[in-house]
Structure formats: C-alpha cells, structure tokens
Amino acid sequence: MVETCTTRVALCNHARKSTAMARPSPQTDRVVALIELIALRPTEGVTLADVTRGLGVNKSTCHSMLSALTSAGWLLRDPVRKRYCLGPGLVAVGRAADDGFPALAFARPAMAELSAAAGANCLVLTIGRDQMTVVDEVRHPRAAAGGLRVGSTVPLRPPFGTAVLAGDDTDRWLAQAPAAHREYYAAALASVRARGYAVELAPAPTEQLRRLASRLGLPGLLERLTEELTGDDHYLVQDLELSREYDTTSINIAVPGPGAQPVLLLGLTCLPAPLSGARIAELGSRLIEVAGLLSTALAGTSQTARAS
C-alpha cells in the first residue's frame, strides 16, 4: 500500500519533466493518493504516520491535508485511536457520481452474475474520444490479482478498443497503429464484428506489467506498454479455435445506447488461465446476451426521460 501511494506522488512530482504529459498538479495528486490510501483500509483507518510514509510527504503537509478534509466532512478522526477514515461527506459525492451514470443501475446485477459465472472481475467502462474509463467493477474473490480499478483509464488506440470500434469509424484508430501492422488490426476488427466481442491476449510478462501499472496508478507506464503492444500481432484473437487453450487477458463487448452508438464497454478481466476456445465462446455468448439486455434497458430509460 505504501509503495502504491509513494509511486503515485513521485510520478506526479516528476511529471513536468515529460513534455508529452499534461501540466501536473502535485497537490491535487497528493489528495487523490490520500483518499485512495484510506479507501484501502475502510475499517481500520490510517494514522498520520501511515499517511506520511504512504505519500512520502512531510508530516506538516499531511496534517494540513487531513485537517482540511476532516473539516469538510470527507474524513472522520477517531480521537482515541487517532486514526482517520472516510467520512460522510464522501457519501454524497459518491451518490452524485452514481446518479451521473444511471446505466450502472441496470448493469450491476448482470455484472455480478457474469463475474460469478466466469470466476473473473467484471468491469464497465465509459467511452470517450481518446480513452475509456472504468466507472464500476465487480471483483471475484478468486480472480487473478491486480487488474483495472474504478477510475483507471485505457487509451482508445491499438490494440485496445476493438469492441467499441467494431461497428463505427475505425480510420482514426487504425491510423494510430504502425503502418506495418494496420492490415493485422483491420483483420482483427473484422473478426470482432463477426464474432460480436473482442478477445484479448498478452504474453505473461507484459500482462503482469500492465496489472502492476494499473495497481500503482501509473498512466505513463500504461501508455508506454500500450505502445509496445501496438506492435504485437498476437494480442488480439482473430479466429477462435474451440479446442485450443488461450491465456486470455479480457473478453469485452460494446453496449449500444439509443441510436445504436456504443456508450459502455462491458468486460471480463483477470480471467483464470488458460481458457479453452469453447469456454471463451460460452462467456462471449453470455456477454452478448447481457449487452443486449442492457442496451434495451438504456433505450427504455432514454424514452422515459424524453417523455417526462
């Protein structure tokens, strides 16, 4: 836990050295790291010393942050144990964020069923122009460690996002792939269109690094790994062989909203390995079914909203 937050703060403090990254805000990143650190210990809370070690920041700075967040109601301080935990002020913030994604109310029960059936984590991501963001997750107790968390982002560029782009404009996406690999990615997109869902693979060391980057909150590292994977012609499954076994990173599908445009990505990650092609096809069929139900529910919600 300590390494997680220390790395996040260190990355932000040194981000200004990279011209490719946006202008950093170390103070903001420290507050985010602080909230995440306390969220990892929801029942036991943290002491001032825990925060100082976890963030790698001096005691005075940490005390100021803790005091300000406590005054705002975002944290509570136990006067006897001298530990801080998340406060009621964050409940209202969480509810407001939840209200901003009404589709999640339909998705959560289905996500729980998918997670239990697959023995894997189930994620929902919103789709932006350049990236996808995890907005909800159901984690399986026996799923592989690591994986994306709520708030994690995935760049919408090769090799990621094939399910989202399968039925939409792919030119800009393909243009981001090295010229020597565009034919491969075009064929992979055609396979996703025909199959209805994407199956992603990764060599074991690369996948371990991806999970580490996600767990530590290192967008820069994840971006660099994406660049490495872009030149890997074995990341995406094209012809799914039912009798073959695959080390599967994820199985995902787009959920269309009103107008048939993809609004969410539904995915299974941290899957048990290896999986047979037949098992992948079975889980893919479940994803297609659930995506269809969610799409219908979203269309109904949209019509109700317009009527009101």
TrEMBL record:
<dbReference type="GO" id="GO:0003677">
    <property type="term" value="F:DNA binding"/>
</dbReference>
<protein>
    <submittedName>
        <fullName>DNA-binding transcriptional regulator, IclR family</fullName>
    </submittedName>
</protein>
<dbReference type="InterPro" id="IPR005471">
    <property type="entry name" value="Tscrpt_reg_IclR_N"/>
</dbReference>
<dbReference type="GO" id="GO:0045892">
    <property type="term" value="P:negative regulation of DNA-templated transcription"/>
</dbReference>
<dbReference type="InterPro" id="IPR050707">
    <property type="entry name" value="HTH_MetabolicPath_Reg"/>
</dbReference>
<dbReference type="InterPro" id="IPR014757">
    <property type="entry name" value="Tscrpt_reg_IclR_C"/>
</dbReference>
<dbReference type="InterPro" id="IPR036388">
    <property type="entry name" value="WH-like_DNA-bd_sf"/>
</dbReference>
<feature type="domain" description="HTH iclR-type">
    <location>
        <begin position="25"/>
        <end position="88"/>
    </location>
</feature>
<dbReference type="InterPro" id="IPR029016">
    <property type="entry name" value="GAF-like_dom_sf"/>
</dbReference>
<keyword id="KW-0238">DNA-binding</keyword>
<dbReference type="Pfam" id="PF09339">
    <property type="entry name" value="HTH_IclR"/>
</dbReference>
<keyword id="KW-0804">Transcription</keyword>
<dbReference type="GO" id="GO:0003700">
    <property type="term" value="F:DNA-binding transcription factor activity"/>
</dbReference>
<dbReference type="InterPro" id="IPR036390">
    <property type="entry name" value="WH_DNA-bd_sf"/>
</dbReference>
<feature type="domain" description="IclR-ED">
    <location>
        <begin position="89"/>
        <end position="300"/>
    </location>
</feature>
<keyword id="KW-0805">Transcription regulation</keyword>
